[in-house]
Amino acid sequence: MTQTKPTVFKKIEETIGNLENTVISDDRKEILQTLIDYILEKVSENKEVRLNFICTHNSRRSHLAQIWAQTLATFYKIPNVVCYSGGTEATAMYPMVAKTLENNGFTLEKLSQSENPVYSIKYGSNALPVIGFSKVYDHDFNPQSEFAAIMTCSQADEGCPFIAGAEKRIPITYDDPKAFDTTPLQEEKYAERSLQIAAELIYVFLNSKK
Length: 210
What we know:
Elements: H1 10-19, H2 26-44, E1 49-55, H3 61-75, E2 81-87, H4 95-104, E3 107-110, E4 119-122, E5 130-132, E6 147-151, H5 154-159, E7 166-171, H6 186-206
Helix pairs in contact: 2-6, 3-6, 4-6
């Protein structure tokens, strides 16, 4: 019998396994259910599931959420999921986010050396890389219609009440690890936020299986 090749790198697979039994509070489950319902509806209709994760600067939380969501959709075999990210303004993907993802088992290659570098981010040897760079949420790189806008920070959620083209606007907010920049806790707090986002998205995709 031919053994199925893993869809994600071993370290990522181990992280997912360790997080699958994370206890999600009832309050958070209620927040996540809207996203689960959106994915289930699209899958049942055999339509593309376009998820655009939005934060103020598209530099930290929105990137972590986009990359974990794309990875987990592949891992749990949820079809036709394409994940994006954007901000209410463009800055750059923060270097500690790249380091955090590498620590989580992703491989990153910097494709440009500009102030807003473009990264190729791979979660599996045969996976199409996620292209990561900071952009506004309605950038040409992102979908213009038929997508869910997932607001990953309260500032973007409050400051952007209307997202043009979005079928659904879903606030799933996280505390900003930026608060720990230039402190001895920086690396630990970025890792903590990455794993919190991963654990909640594991719950989402586990519950999005038909």
